[in-house]
Amino acid sequence: DVPKATEPRGDSDGPRRGSLCDQHCAAINNVQGDLGDLGCHLHRPRVPPAMSSPSCCQQHSEEVCESCVVKTTLTAENAVEANKLSNNYKFGFKKWKSHVTARPWEDRSEIVKELYSDLNVIRGSGGSTVTCGNVLYLLLFGWWLSLLYVLVAAMMFITVVGAPYGRLCWDLAGYFFWPFGKVIQKVEVPKSRQALGACEAGAGESSALLGGPVPRRWRPRCWADAGYWQRAGTVAWLCLGYPALALAHGLVCVTAWLLVILIPVAKLSARTAARVLLLPPERVLVRRLRMTEVPLEGEVILCCYRAVNPYYYKYAVDGINVFAVNLLPLVLVTLVVGYVDSHNRLTSSPVKFTLALLSIMPLSYYIGMAIASISAQSNFAVGAVVNATFGSITELTFYITALIKGSREGNRCYAEIVKSALTGTLVGCVLFVPGLCMVIGGIRHQEQRFNSRSAGVSSALLFLSVGGVFAPTLFSKVYGKLVCGECHNVTQNPLGHYLCHNCHFDLMENNGTLYYSHVQPLVYTVSLLLPAAYLIGLFFTLKTHSHIYDIHISDCHMPGHHHSAVVHWSRWRALVILLLSTLCMSACADLATEHISPILTNSTISQYFIGVTVLAMVPELPEIVNGIQFALQNNLSLSIEIGNCIAVQVCMLQIPILVLFTIFYPTNFTLVFSDLHVYASMFSVVLMNYIFMDGKCDYFQGTVLVMVYFILLAVYFFAPSPSGC
Questions:
Q1: What are phi and psi of 486, to 5 degrees?
Q2: Mapping DSSP to helix (H, G, I), strand (E, B) and coil, where does residue 74 land?
Q3: 687 burial class (0-12, 13-18, 19+ CB within 10 angstroms)?
Q4: What sequence ranges are listed for the domain Inner membrane component (predicted)?
Q5: Helix ranges, 208-262 (H)
Q6: CB of 485 within 8 A of CB of 501?
């Protein structure tokens, strides 16, 4: 099922350079992927020892190093995963780190296997159970859960018929106070003990399982109506004891699951409520494990050693990361509160705005996962269409909703907020995303290399797009008329100096002749040329010059790679999730724009700062996480491409779509930006290209990019609000 490796291009010195490329690439570009080794292990003919001489190394050292940094061989488990990994290196495709297929169980590490265990495995001596995480469990859940079991046990003893369940609750009270190093087993009661009237025969027997006297609750009842008493005790337990304990365990389960690192406690509580508490009390055995003691028989239901596992951030449910699963209920809460409480009787507008903004993060994750799943299971044409259509749907939904609201209210602030968000996305993806990835990746790797040729394509498109986007702004600065709100004569001389405030270039002089006759046609021309340049870039990188990326699929078979692909989401399921997520995204964007007005009017913070930070970067958080994960695996090329592709899409797709939207639905959005946006964007692009010239970087260069980004944020923070807001 694994695609065969592409054969290397034959050349005269291929056999001589092949081994050198393998050695240099393995040492320099040891890029390791989560599904296999995303390394530079090229399958070339083996070099005879005689040819591997020092003179040969000196002669071809520069040539070898130049070739190995632009060649990447992907090792995947199946064809679908290989297609997804290959799409990561294609220009215009969403870069996605998570798996779209289920990984074979035998290929996973022991740490990951432990995350998905059912807490029913008895291990040998693993040291003391007194750890910080276990103590945290005691402080958060253990003491009150144990106290609740004691109270339920007392209540069951009072009912008399529920005495067996009372003894079970007493044993479980001790277990849940400190469950670590203890085990709950389901045991089989011997038939001789179940027979009525066999009291004397079973009174003194011992159990091989327990190695001691039979527990008291195993001793048979010698009443003629034992069945009646058992049924009465079960009814009393299900009516009085079980509901309270099930509710308590449900609360513990939800709380521990939301904390992520306490998911073992959530599993413990869920299995207790679903299975342990529904078993007959005589079949449940609670015992402490000794250092050298291993149960010989009986099913182990629960056996927990640690309450906290920091690796649960890797946990996934049906391919969905646990954090995205935990944030999904937030979307439902946001929609219910936002549309039911329309008059702000329960919550205020800032709270609703915050909820709507936070809900965008999991929806962005689901949209990205759906796009990656569809692209990996489809041909190139379908993948390109899906990425181009839904790749920027998160940002466009918010921008269009804000422009519609601003047009209805006649408020220019919404258009300025959209411009600030566009600029913030551009600056953040050019400076902050690659800079943060360099810093975090540089902590693990001293120096990281990337494909400078592929990065150069994105940089060239970025230069073109920034120049095209800000061309109408520069045109208006040259030919527009400067108009000021108020001016004061400083020297008291009519010919002296004047101090003016609230100055701007007026494009509407003489009934807007300059704007409608010159600026607007320029805007439409730029909006047509930028998408055309984007399509040319796609054709250049994916068709005529695809060798720039030089992606190969390795034919090596690692353990488990012979399995067929088991996708998490089929194409139809991914399409349904994509459409539902887009619909929910539209609703959340509508709520965010509906309740942002009080924040803009009452906040002392500049509207520029709100746009370039919160509104610009929150939707990009899933992309930032993907970039960090790629950087930690020494795959900085994808980390850089994530930021560059988003910035290019902002200029070449999102802005032209907004201009096209204003043709059919007139708004206050014009492609004329403030001086601050122009200078910040151009400086960021120039600095980014200077850093990426040599094809290698370290954490210091990443720190420079991050620091420059925070300096620009400080400028936006202290800048006055846009005119008219």
A1: -150, 145
A2: strand
A3: middle
A4: 132-182
A5: 226-236, 242-258
A6: yes
C-alpha 487/C-alpha 502 separation (Å) is 9
* Per-residue DSSP letter, 93: S
Query: Which residue, 691, 619, 609, 702, is CA-closest to 654?
Result: 619
If you ran DSSP here, which 8-state letter would residue 101 be given?
B
What is the pTM assigned to this prediction?
0.75
Sign, CA dihedral 379-380-385-390, equals positive
Contact (CB, 8 A) for 194 and 311: no
Tokens 């001293």 belong to 446
CB-based contacts of 418: which residues, under 8 Å, 6+ apart?
399, 402, 403, 611, 658, 669
* Residue 140 buriedness (CB in 10 A; 0-12 / 13-18 / 19+): middle
Q: At what angle do helices 699-718 and 433-444 cross, to 10 degrees?
A: 150
How far is the C-alpha of 562 from the C-alpha of 131, rounded, in Å? 41
Which of 96, 4, 70 is CA-nearest to residue 546? 70
List CB contacts of 228: < 8 A, sequence separation 6 or more: none
- CB neighbour list of residue 613: distance below 8 Å, 6 or more residues apart: 424, 713, 716
d(CA 496, CA 489): 7
Cα 499–Cα 611–Cα 596 angle in degrees, nearest 5: 105
By the 8 A CB rule, do 387 and 93 touch? yes
Closest CA to 288 of 205, 193, 179, 207: 179
DSSP 8-state assignment for residue 614: I
Compute the distance between CA of residue 193 and CA of residue 366 in angstroms, rounded to an integer: 56
CB 141 within 8 A of CB 252: yes
Give 41-62 pLDDT, tens digit per residue. 333 333 333 333 444 444 444 3
Q: Which residues are CB-contacts of 460 (< 8 A; sequence separation ≥ 6)?
A: none
Write down the H helix ranges in 259-348. 263-274, 322-340
**Domains of the chain, CATH where assigned:** 116-187+230-310 (no CATH), 315-484+505-718 (1.20.1420.30)
Q: For residue 537, count other CB atoms closer than 10 A to its CB.
A: 20
| 304, β-bridge pairs | 180, 182
Dihedral sign computed on CA atoms, order 391, 397, 399, 400: positive
DSSP sequence for 440-503: HHHHH-SSEE--HHHHHHHHHHHHHHHHHHTHHHHHHHHHSEEE-SEEEESSS-TTS-EEEES-
**Placement of tokens 């003629």 in the chain:** 224
Q: How many CB atoms lie within 10 A of CB 258?
A: 16
Residue 432 has which token pair? 């902050």
Q: Which amino acid is at 611?
A: G
Q: What is the pLDDT of residues 261-293, one digit of tens each?
A: 999 999 999 999 998 999 888 888 888 876 445
Considering only the C-alpha atoms of the chain, give the largest distance between any 2 of them, rounded to a whole number of Å. Answer: 122
Tokens found for residue 65: 């190093």
Which value, to the nearest 10 degrees, does the dihedral of the CA atoms of residues 628, 634, 638, 644 take?
A: 70
For residue 351, give the nearest of 556, 514, 545, 591 by alpha carbon: 591
| pLDDT < 70 regions, the chain | 1-76, 124-127, 189-230, 290-297, 451-455, 480-485, 489-496, 498, 501-513, 545-564, 722-725
Nearest to 295 by CA among 201, 211, 360: 211
